[in-house]
Here is the input.
Amino acid sequence: PGFKLGATPSRLRRAHATPSAAHAVEQSIERPRAAAEWYGQPPGKNKSMQPKLLWNDPGLPPRREDDVKATVYSMAFNPSGTELVVAVANLVLVYATEDGDLRHRLRGHKDLVYTVSYGREGTKFASGGADNTVIIWNSKGEGVLKYTHSDSIQVVAHNPCCDQLASCTEGDFGLWSSTAKSVTKHKVGAKILSAKWSNDGQYLALGMYDGRISIRDKAGQEYKQIEKKAPVWCLAWSPAKEDPGDLLAVGCWDQTLSFYQLSSGVA
Here is the structure.
């Protein structure tokens, strides 16, 4: 309720406007070689299109039980793109993106770090993980605030328009703000798998394991709800000016991709 399914972005409508265009899109997905030839670039012939490795870090820490490299669970650029924050093992690593210089190796967590997010002003970033803890760091790599939930932290997400952070777990989500005295927490009925703020920072979309998508306002109150039949693994709000600003894309475990239009005038 409150959403219209099938609000297709204008770019997708244009791409499927004619049979020939639809055929080209199908080719690009199913037959890479034919698609490359359709675009006039035979595969493997255009050296300018070949990716170039700028740097890598061969020294990532091993998992605790063996010598296999630990999983990189999450990463986030700062707004200027000059630094990359990475969650790996129980560490938060901060790299210079130009040359891969490791600027900070942060050890504030006692267990695996699952998620990181950088704030819009570039002065703070956050991390959360299996130790049920959220840590807010400044750009110098100093921990400035720590708070806990009762379950492991699945996602942290900064509001793109103000100094506000959402931290999501298996049983609730919290909202921290630099202007509030404490973290407000709100119970949910299922594990939160994904979380995205709308581009104007007014709404937070939460994708859950039971297939529900809960749209919350900045205060954490539920505004709308969508029901799917499978876990919601990813969400994205359209940033395009030509499309309505409240277009939400949803990716599910049941192999579906859906678009929903938030209708402000419908309850």
Notes: The first strand starts at residue 3 and ends at 5. Residues 19-30 form the longest helix (12 residues). The chain is about 10% helix and 45% strand.
